[in-house]
Specification:
- The protein has 866 residues and is of the alpha+beta class.
- It has six domains: 157 residues, HPT domain (Four Helix Bundle (Hemerythrin (Met), subunit A)), CATH 1.20.120; 121 residues, Four Helix Bundle (Hemerythrin (Met), subunit A), CATH 1.20.120; 66 residues, no CATH class; 58 residues, Helix Hairpins; 180 residues, Heat Shock Protein 90 (2-Layer Sandwich), CATH 3.30.565.10; 148 residues, CheA-289, Domain 4 (OB fold (Dihydrolipoamide Acetyltransferase, E2P), Beta Barrel), CATH 2.40.50.180.
- It has 29 helices and 18 strands.
- Strands 10-14-15-13-12-11 form a six-stranded mixed β-sheet. The chain has a five-stranded mixed β-sheet with strand order 2-4-5-7-6, covered by helices on one side.
- The protein starts with 5 loop residues before the first helix and ends in a 21-residue tail after the last helix.
- This is Chemotaxis protein CheA.
- Involved in the transmission of sensory signals from the chemoreceptors to the flagellar motors. CheA is autophosphorylated; it can transfer its phosphate group to either CheB or CheY.
- Keywords: ATP-binding, Chemotaxis, Kinase, Nucleotide-binding, Phosphoprotein, Transferase, Two-component regulatory system.
């Protein structure tokens, strides 16, 4: 590979694979477009009655609307029609120029290929894709008729792209396809030139306005954000749309539940969190309209949480309309737009009215407004008459129309039926011609390397595998580990001399371990992609808050499970928002405190103790213990004055739902939503969160995530007749203490001296409520366990041995099982608990299991839950 860095080879490989995927979708879609195109005349097919049209009765080489002009922006219709629906030639546009949805899909694919090739400086590929894009834009805007030659030309463009990608795979540029690019480029330029000449024949002045609007719309859907391509990739946008759709779907259900039961505080709280998350995501990507709208929705919901009286108004219904608007914006983004909302100001004003008590009559019912529009379109009633009725009516619209003898009920019912039939036919046609969903090309960060050695090749074969298949593979390997343990530890083999069997079992164990490790590696991806998403977030938050911030990234090469990446994205966003809003001081405050004007936020990742540690750290003011404690007492989260609570216990209060010490609510944070979501997401993947802070020096929040969620190396121990598993990575040493090394603190805590340090002892039989073989420390075994910077000595009866352990989750009906993170199945079929080292350390720190003597009758003391 010469001197080309691996990450740049990765970028080129991604481009090649994504482009080939696009071509696989492009070619059949282009063929589909050609099949949907029919060359017809509007006057002959639709019996156009527009006798004044000078093209009436003539063969149509170009659409009549091209010569006669446009009525308005985007309407392919002749000047004699008053609206799109009145013009039959507009309706025949689909027949003559192919299905518009298919056209847009092809346009987006060529546009994505052009963008990615341009970033990599594969100029020939980018140039050909750009020319194909120009031709498609002319066709889809109605400036030129789609012909069979155009379909053939686009297919030739696909053929060229495949040849160019093959060349790029063997070499590191596309210079060797310059002649082919010139040939196909000349044909495309000729087609575009002919389209331009036809467009110049348009003489009506209103055509220029419409054409400009169409072009501006095209530009808006493409490259509206120059300079952001290296921060926001298509994968990120795709994930945003998917997550946004899920949040809005949940919000709709919660709004319906809240509307039925306004006193349902649980639905309201969950709804508030969904809208808050949606707003944060929109802010991250810079979709200003959606962010403003969701922020105002959040304000209304916050008022509802505070018990605001909305009077006769129905906030749930209004917010449902706002969710529809958010969906419209989300659909625009999915189609390559920016989520602009034309009626944003009206929506904001409508929600602001909810927060102001008024004696004005309620707004018209949306259903009646739709009925009014339908009746006007069907010609049942004039628009002026319907407007008067809507302003002055004191009864339902249908009753008013019938009572005033403007229309009969039969006329109204017939109009509704006709509209429903037309809508159903339109939906069926759209579903029939809808193109397959195509994943957008992955955008490339930075520019490609130009100095690639000639003759260098990129020979790496990649395939895409569904995550469900990988999950099934890992589960099967886990079952294989269990089966192996059952075979090797089969009781029938005890006492037998089986040399050949032992050799074969050892070889099988080695293969199973390699399989397990390989399966886990397949799912691992570096956190660099996740970390780089935060660059834009910190930049935007810095601008909003007026604070100067420098983001330092480290450990980007650290790899974690792909599922983990998806689960910790939201937590990281919340932590960074809080760090900038609450943690860092304003520039004036920092200077006054003797700090640099620019604050520092550090985002790091590393492997430690069989876990991935992701840390968000800042050099701000730190957490205010007294303020947090006061707020917790005010909310009833702490009994008494809380003086006995440790700093760790106080700081963990910030993860309580709705907890916030902010004096001012901003669109960054301050409502008490987010930190509880961080904790919930971490718990889903068996992770933990830890908070450290020093007043005036800053805060550090550490996310501790298991490196693997499936199989670990474990140390089996025994207490009495009970066996348990300890994660081997947490074991530091094993020994039998002497009587002289054991001492006690005044409150009964046992300590054992390990070289120059004293380690607190935890008797595991106290935790498990099991009778041990011995209560005397120097007659048993101590296992020294390490958790973060803390060490404890775990007193057990016996070390049984080491084995691979398949982690199985504990059933929900068991509730909260203290000190256990899961279970596994032993070779003999018994279930064995996997102990959680962090929980064992907490038991020691809180003094819940002190020194005990052997109880009478063998009755063990009750477990005190942590």
């Amino acid at each position: 590979m010469g001197n080309i860095p691996d990450d740049q080879i990765e970028i080129i490989n991604d481009f090649i694979q994504e482009s080939r995927d696009m071509l696989d979708n492009l070619e059949p879609t282009i063929i589909e477009l050609g099949q949907s195109c029919q060359k017809v005349d509007c006057w002959s097919v639709l019996d156009c009655s527009n006798k004044t049209c000078k093209r009436h009765g003539k063969s149509m080489e170009t659409p009549c609307w091209l010569d006669e002009g446009y009525v308005g922006a985007g309407l392919q219709t002749c000047v004699f029609a008053e609206s799109e629906s009145d013009c039959l030639s507009c309706q025949v546009f689909v027949l003559t120029n192919g299905d518009p949805e298919t056209m847009n899909a092809i346009f987006r694919l060529f546009h994505s290929m052009k963008g990615s090739a341009g970033f990599l400086e594969f100029d020939h590929i980018a140039h050909v894709a750009h020319l194909a894009e120009n031709l498609l834009d002319r066709i889809r805007s109605g400036k030129v008729m789609l012909e069979a030659d155009h379909v053939d030309l686009l297919c030739q463009g696909c053929d060229f792209a495949r040849e160019a990608l093959d060349y790029v795979e063997k070499n590191l540029d596309d210079q060797g396809v310059s002649e082919e690019a010139a040939g196909i480029g000349a044909l495309l330029e000729k087609a575009v030139s002919e389209a331009q000449q036809k467009a110049e024949r348009v003489h009506a002045p209103q055509v220029d306005v419409a054409a400009a609007d169409v072009e501006s719309e095209t530009e808006a859907s493409g490259e509206e954000l120059p300079g952001l391509e290296d921060l926001i990739t298509p994968e990120m946008l795709s994930r945003f749309v998917q997550e946004g759709d899920e949040l809005l779907t949940d919000s709709e259900q919660l709004l319906l539940a809240w509307g039925e039961d306004p006193g349902n505080s649980d639905s309201l709280a969950e709804l508030f969190r969904d809208i808050h998350s949606f707003k944060g995501n929109c802010g991250f990507f810079g979709f200003a309209d959606l962010e403003k709208l969701s922020h105002q929705m959040e304000t209304v919901l916050d008022a509802a949480k505070q018990g605001c009286d909305f009077g006769e108004q129905k906030p749930a219904d209004i917010l449902l309309k706002m969710v529809d608007q958010l969906r419209t914006g989300l659909g625009s983004i999915a189609d390559g737009g920016r989520g602009k909302l034309e009626n944003l100001e009206d929506c904001l004003a409508e929600m602001k009215k909810l927060l102001v008590k008024t004696d004005q009559p309620p707004a018209p019912d949306p259903e009646e407004l739709r009925l009014a529009d339908l009746l006007v379109q069907q010609g049942v009633v004039a628009s002026g008459t319907i407007a008067t009725l809507m302003r002055t009516k004191s009864r339902p619209l249908v009753d008013a129309l019938v009572g005033c003898e403007i229309a009969t009920r039969e006329q109204i019912e017939q109009a509704v039926k006709q509209a429903e039939k037309a809508a159903a036919e339109k939906t069926t046609a759209a579903e029939t011609s809808a193109p397959a969903v195509v994943k957008p090309a992955r955008s490339v960060v930075g520019k490609a390397v130009k100095a690639a050695p000639k003759g260098g090749t990129i020979k790496r074969q990649d395939i895409r595998v569904d995550l469900d298949k990988l999950d099934k593979l890992i589960n099967l390997i886990g079952e294989m580990v269990i089966a192996e343990n059952m075979l090797v530890n089969n009781p029938d083999l005890v006492g037998l001399e089986l040399e050949n069997f032992n050799k074969a079992s050892q070889q099988m164990s080695k293969i199973v371990r390699e399989l397990q490790e390989m399966a886990m590696v397949i799912r691992m991806i570096p956190v660099s992609g996740l970390f780089r998403r935060m660059i834009r977030l910190v930049h935007d938050l810095s601008v909003k808050s007026g604070k100067k911030v420098e983001l330092e990234l480290s450990g980007e090469e650290t790899e974690v499970d792909k599922t983990v990446i998806e689960q910790i994205t939201d937590p990281l966003v919340h932590l960074l928002r809080n760090s900038l809003d609450h943690g860092l001081e304003s520039p004036e405050e920092r200077v006054a405190a003797g700090k640099p004007e620019k604050g520092v936020v550090r985002l790091s990742a590393k492997h430690e103790e069989g876990e991935v540690w992701i840390t968000v750290e800042d050099d701000g003011r730190g957490l205010n213990r007294e303020r947090i404690l006061a707020k917790a007492i005010e909310k009833g989260l702490v009994q008494g004055d809380g003086a006995e609570l440790s700093d760790r216990a106080v700081f963990n209060l910030i993860f309580q739902p709705g907890f916030s010490t902010a004096d001012k609510i901003t669109d960054i944070s301050g409502r008490g939503v987010g930190m509880d979501v961080v904790k919930q997401n971490l718990e889903k993947i068996k992770g933990k969160i830890e908070v450290y802070s020093k007043p005036g020096q800053g805060s550090s929040i550490k996310l501790r995530i298991p490196l693997t969620l499936a199989i670990i190396d474990g140390l089996m121990i025994r207490v009495g007749r009970t066996r348990c598993i300890l994660p081997l990575l947490s074991v530091r040493e094993i020994f039998r203490p002497t009587a002289e090394a054991i001492t006690h603190t005044p409150d009964g805590q046992e300590l054992v001296k390990v070289r120059e340090n004293f380690v607190p002892v935890l008797r595991l039989h106290n935790v498990l409520r099991k009778k041990p073989d011995s209560f005397v420390l120097h007659e048993g075994t101590l296992v020294v366990l390490e958790h973060q910077d803390d060490r404890i000595g775990l007193f057990v009866d016996e070390i049984v041995g080491q084995q691979q352990t398949v982690i199985k989750g504990l059933s929900n009906y068991l509730g909260n099982v203290n000190c256990a993170s899961g279970c596994t199945i032993l070779g003999n079929g018994d279930v064995c608990l996997i102990l959680d080292i962090g929980s064992l350390v907490d038991v020691v720190e809180q003094g819940l299991c002190r020194l005990d003597s052997e109880p009478a009758g063998g009755e063990m003391p009750a477990v005190v839950t942590a």
